[in-house]
Design goal:
By secondary structure, the protein is an alpha+beta fold. The chain is 35% helix and 31% strand. It has one domain: Trna Endonuclease, Chain: A, domain 1 (3-Layer(aba) Sandwich).
């Protein structure tokens, strides 16, 4: 599926979840509801996708986990914080590089209007290989 159409569909599902729930819940609540909505519209979603770090020829299981991986293309990192900061952005960019996915969505559900809590990020190292 085309990147823009896929992220548009994901954001639509996230907005639906945000409208149904109040800001201030745990990230896990938003994650489960968004997972449900994404699957309901027929998207392939992996929850808490393990993400190893490969250093030279050694594969290190460091405990990295992608909150939601949609269609093996889009990394979603869910937050419920007062404000997004650089460490959140760096986390998604790291996941993009390690997973070799092209697009990431950093979504903060602890906002009044969800569009103010979404950052779309791109992997500058993307090389047409998927995990």
């Amino acid at each position: 599926m085309e990147d823009n159409k896929l992220t548009e569909q994901i954001i639509g599902c996230a907005i639906k979840v945000h409208r149904a729930l109040v800001p201030g819940l745990l990230e896990s609540a938003y994650q489960e509801c968004l997972l449900y909505e994404l699957m309901k519209v027929g998207l392939f979603v992996e929850k808490e996708k393990p993400l190893p770090l490969v250093y030279e020829e050694v594969k290190l299981e460091c405990g990295y986990r992608i909150d939601l991986l949609v269609e093996k293309q889009v990394v979603i990192e869910i937050k419920s914080v007062e404000t997004l900061n650089n460490v959140h952005t760096a986390q998604v960019l790291t996941y993009l590089k390690l997973s070799n996915c092209r697009i990431g969505l950093l979504i903060n559900f602890n906002v009044t209007q969800l569009t103010n809590g979404i950052k779309r990020l791109y992997n500058k190292y993307y090389s047409e290989l998927l995990i």
